[in-house]
């Protein structure tokens, strides 16, 4: 059995290539080679899985780095330093106690804008390295710890199910890699138990999504949910518009296909090899369809990662050149994970098994929760999506005016966010896997009132004050020279137009109600609201009075 080679970074390139050739020659003459038969190992599986995970990490950290200041910075909508300050105060000023309450590295690093941006861009750099194939257990552990740290202080902007899913997926990846070495084909294959843990993850993801639908909205049971979904989902894509136009019967068939993939197919991830491969094809195909039909952030890209574990090297090898396929097979035949690596994988399996009690109980419960964590490190979670589907689409539209006096002749100009519906003639955008977090969160705001989304009032104040960070979150600022005198929020009902109707518009809309009355930067009610939430503003303390808007 060939020993694991030292890291290539310590050797010249020509020496490394010579050792590669010598190793392959020894493997080709291995006495057991002719008895190996079709490969049942997972070197290529790890190769694909880690690179896709690296890509998802890259998108997650990049969108974080680019939106960090306006959302979570010191002058952001929900400042992370203030959130962390409250956490430390509740913990008696002890970083250790604060970490026990809410695991995040920022209890020690601090949540200054400099620390937050340094951590985010470090995540970008490490994830790019993984995409290039430079990774090991320490790199994966750093990515996992950094991202989970942001999730824990991200508040409402990081309250989505795929944040927990990325944390769990990334934690498993630590045990997929060796501790030393960086090149995928010079390291032993991963312990098979970690591959099975990824299958356990995709099983829970899909089954949880299927069960929450059956237990939730009746339209999943009468097969009509997709009649509405493409129009009412958070951020529709251009293809959403055209899929929505399909006949009702095709939408009903789509729901049946959804139930097949989410409720039946996952069981075959634990079946014989041919069944696993068929299950993997269905799972990946389903996620590709979802990617094309909507902008669900990086959720569907991330869900493909554990689905890759349904395939072994023999199946995935068809996607690789023959030379690379042969090399992987020979190395996998001769190298095995170290005893320490196998032992760590077994300990991981025991931990996951113990922590799965809560998620499994949740799956079996008629009161199933959607997207919840049962441990503070988010190691084993429960998942679900679209347990309810809206029949109509509502949007909160922000409008500003520079007029000093309000009346029937007031000229209001609309603010546009990057991808949420606003201008009815603007084509829906295709941004998956990128995530505009403000666009998503304002979609939720339309279901309730500003009291449930107080950050929206803070956002309006920042626009009134001409805050550069808030303006960076916009697609178009109708007041580039100076901020408006007043901003109001209106609630509209949106629906797709019919394709080919000649209107030139993608949407039609009608006003439903006033969401927030006109507010000015010196409005006493607005300032009182900001004070109540601990958000700073420019007014003098003596001028603050009134009630919440």
Tell me about this structure.
There is one protein chain. This protein has 549 residues and is α+β, with helices and mostly antiparallel strands. It folds into two domains: 43-382, no CATH class; 393-543, no CATH class. 51% of the residues lie in helices and 7% in strands. The strands form two sheets. Strands 4-3-5-6 form a four-stranded antiparallel β-sheet. A hairpin with a 7-residue loop joins β1 and β2. α6 (113-131) packs antiparallel against α7 (137-153) and α13 (273-293) packs antiparallel against α14 (299-307). The protein is globular. The termini are far apart.
Characteristic terms for this protein:
alpha+beta, four-stranded antiparallel sheet, 2 domains, 22 helices, globular, 549 residues, disordered C terminus, disordered N terminus
Short summary of the structure?
With 549 residues, the chain is of the alpha+beta class.
Helix content: 40-55%
Taken as a percent bin, the fraction of beta residues is: 5-15%
Uncertain segments: 1-11, 30-39, 540-549
Shape: globular
Transmembrane segments: 43-66, 118-148, 160-181, 193-212, 340-364
Protein name: Membrane protein
Subcellular location: Endoplasmic reticulum membrane
InterPro entries: LMF, LMF1/2_C, LMF1/2_N
């Amino acid at each position: 059995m060939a020993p694991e080679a030292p890291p290539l970074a310590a050797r010249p390139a020509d020496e490394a290539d010579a050792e590669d050739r010598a190793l392959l020659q020894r493997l080709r003459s291995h006495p057991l080679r002719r008895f190996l038969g079709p490969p049942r190992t997972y070197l290529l599986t790890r190769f694909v899985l880690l690179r896709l995970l690296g890509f998802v990490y890259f998108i997650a950290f990049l969108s974080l780095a680019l939106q960090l200041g306006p959302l979570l910075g010191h002058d952001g909508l929900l400042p992370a330093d203030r959130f962390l300050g409250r956490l430390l105060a509740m913990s008696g000023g002890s970083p250790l106690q604060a970490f026990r309450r809410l695991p995040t590295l920022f209890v020690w690093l601090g949540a200054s804008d400099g620390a937050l941006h340094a951590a985010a861009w470090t995540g970008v750099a490490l994830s790019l390295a993984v995409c290039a194939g430079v990774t090991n257990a320490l790199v994966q552990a750093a990515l996992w710890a950094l991202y989970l740290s942001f999730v824990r202080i991200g508040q409402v902007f990081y309250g989505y199910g795929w944040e927990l899913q990325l944390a769990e997926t990334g934690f498993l990846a630590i045990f997929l890699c060796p501790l030393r070495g960086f090149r995928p084909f010079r390291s032993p294959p991963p312990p098979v138990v970690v591959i099975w843990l990824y299958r356990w993850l995709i099983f829970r993801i899909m089954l949880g999504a299927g069960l929450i639908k059956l237990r939730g909205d009746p339209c999943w049971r009468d097969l009509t949910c997709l009649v509405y979904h493409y129009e009412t989902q958070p951020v529709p894509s251009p293809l959403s518009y055209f899929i929505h136009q399909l006949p009702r019967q095709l939408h009903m068939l789509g729901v049946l296909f959804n139930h097949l993939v989410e409720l039946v197919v996952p069981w075959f991830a634990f079946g014989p090899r041919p069944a696993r491969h068929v299950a993997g094809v269905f799972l990946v195909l389903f996620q590709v369809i979802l990617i094309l039909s909507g902008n669900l952030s990086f959720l569907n890209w991330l869900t493909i990662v554990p689905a890759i574990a349904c395939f072994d090297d023999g199946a995935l090898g068809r996607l690789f050149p023959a030379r690379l396929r042969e090399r992987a097979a020979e190395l996998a035949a001769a190298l095995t994970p170290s005893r320490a690596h196998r032992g760590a994988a077994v300990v991981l399996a025991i931990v996951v098994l113990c922590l799965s009690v809560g998620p499994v109980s949740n799956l079996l419960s008629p009161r199933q929760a959607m997207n919840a964590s049962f441990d503070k490190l988010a190691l084993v979670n429960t998942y679900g999506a679209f347990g309810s589907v809206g029949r109509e689409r509502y949007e909160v539209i922000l409008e500003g005016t520079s007029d000093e006096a309000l009346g029937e002749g007031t000229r209001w100009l609309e603010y546009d966010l990057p991808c949420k519906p606003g201008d009815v003639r603007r084509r829906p955008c295709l941004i998956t896997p990128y995530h505009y977090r403000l666009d998503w969160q304002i979609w939720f705001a339309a279901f309730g009132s500003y009291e449930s989304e107080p950050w929206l009032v803070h956002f309006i104040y920042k626009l009134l004050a001409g805050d550069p960070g808030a303006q960076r979150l916009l697609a178009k600022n109708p007041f580039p020279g100076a901020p408006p005198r007043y901003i109001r929020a209106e609630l509209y009902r949106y629906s797709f137009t019919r394709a080919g109707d000649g209107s030139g518009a993608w949407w039609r809309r009608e006003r439903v109600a006033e969401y927030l009355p006109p507010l000015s930067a010196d409005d006493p009610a607005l300032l009182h609201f900001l004070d109540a939430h601990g958000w700073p503003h420019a007014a003098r303390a003596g001028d603050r009075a009134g009630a919440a808007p």
